[in-house]
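ok so i was messing around last nite and threw this chain in just to see what happens. nothing serious, just curious
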Amino acid sequence: MITLAVSMMVIINSCTASQKISMKSGAQLWSENCQRCHNTPSPSSFTPEQWETVGMHMQSRALLTEVEKNKIIEFLKQ
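result:
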């Protein structure tokens, strides 16, 4: 019974985290995930194609989800 309760809490908490991420804009995610480790370049520093490559590289380094990565890249391409 306790194991079931613990399992349910883990599932509920992970869903809540996913919902919080889905509500954040690319700019918010960029600020929270990219700028915490280093000064990031201006969005105009790279072409949209280059941002795609940077996003793929940084997704694994920053442990970003696919949704987070895509939102950040879309923000940087604007």
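not much to say yet. The radius of gyration is 16 Å.
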